[in-house]
Amino acid sequence: MIPLRHYIVDYYPAPAPIRPADAPPGDGKEGRRGRLRSSMHETPAQRFSAVTGFERTSARDGRSEVRLRIAPRHLNELGIVHGGVLMALADEAIGMAAFSAVPPGTAVVTAELHVHFLLPARSGLLVAQGVIWRAGRRLVTGEATIDLYPEEGTPITVAKATGTWATVTQDVPLP
What we know:
Radius of gyration: 18 Å
Structural class: alpha+beta
Strand content: 25-35%
Largest sheet: 6 strands, antiparallel
Number of strands: 6
C-alpha cells in the first residue's frame, strides 16, 4: 500500500473585480450584456491564471503557449501533478488559441474538453501548446499538447487534449 502524504492547501482570496477605465459607473447589475462587455476588457492575468501560476507566453493566429513551473501546491497525494491542474492547463492553452482565432468583440467559453493523461509529472516546467483546428461562427475546436521539461533530461509529452469552445457575443450572450 502506498502511504498518502498530507498537504496544507493554500487558499487564495478572489481578486477584486476590475472595471475598464472607460466603463460607465454602475453597481455591477447592468445585466448579461454589460457583464460580457466588462469581462472582455478585464486584465486576464488577474484572474484564474494568476492564482494557478500559469504564465501566458503567447497567443496569436489560433496558436498559444502557456507555461507552469510545478510547485508543491500542484501535486496530489501521490506526489504527481494533479489531473485537474493538467486539465486546467490544457483548457487555458486551447481557450487562448480560440480567443486569438475569433473576431474582435467575441469571447469564448469551454463547451467540452477531453484530456488524455499519458505520463505522470513530478517536477520541472510544463509547457502547453494550443492549436485551433477550426474557428466557426458558433463553435471553435482545437487541441493542446502538454510537454514536461524536467530539470535534467529530454522533454516528454505528459498529456494531450481536444475540445470545443462556444463563441459569445453581444448578440448571443451567456444564458
